[in-house]
Recover the amino acids of this structure.
């Protein structure tokens, strides 16, 4: 199945179990994907089930493991999960800016925002896979490799772009 917004997929974890994610938005060559807090012994998850699941992390990823069939595609869910799209910091011409996830809006950053926000990253599919393995207790990653928890992503999403 071709990658598209709403696509629900299963990722084989260390130890043979499955974790789950969903594609929720697209920006150019990257897809905003979220990972869910469920582990199953089979790659089966219904769209109705995702409404109750905690989101572990989300971010910008390339879809190589979906396109290659390495991840199991489960279908497309019409109902989008509870997603908060983060803002990022960027240094442009020596001036700190806040930029929206889709790069549609940008403004000057306050010193507090520079301290709080992360740089935008577009990661490979294996980074998503490693994150699932870590958060679901299958593999312990070094602190520098742990993906941003969803609560912190949502805190960055609450920044007003009209300030």
């Amino acid at each position: 199945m071709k990658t598209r917004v709403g696509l629900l997929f299963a990722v084989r974890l260390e130890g043979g179990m499955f974790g789950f994610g969903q594609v929720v938005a697209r920006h150019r060559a990257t897809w905003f994907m979220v990972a869910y807090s469920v582990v199953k012994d089979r790659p089966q998850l219904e769209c109705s089930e995702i409404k109750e699941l905690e989101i572990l992390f989300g971010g910008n990823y390339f879809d190589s493991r979906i396109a290659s069939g390495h991840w199991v595609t489960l279908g497309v869910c019409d109902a989008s999960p509870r997603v908060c799209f983060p803002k990022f910091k960027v240094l442009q011409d020596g001036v700190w800016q806040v930029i929206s996830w889709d790069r549609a809006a940008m403004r000057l950053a306050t010193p507090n925002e520079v301290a709080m926000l992360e740089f935008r990253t577009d990661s490979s599919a294996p980074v998503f896979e490693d994150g699932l393995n870590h958060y679901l207790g299958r593999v312990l990653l070094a602190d520098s490799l742990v993906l941003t928890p969803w609560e912190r992503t949502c805190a960055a999403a609450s920044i007003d772009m009209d300030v």
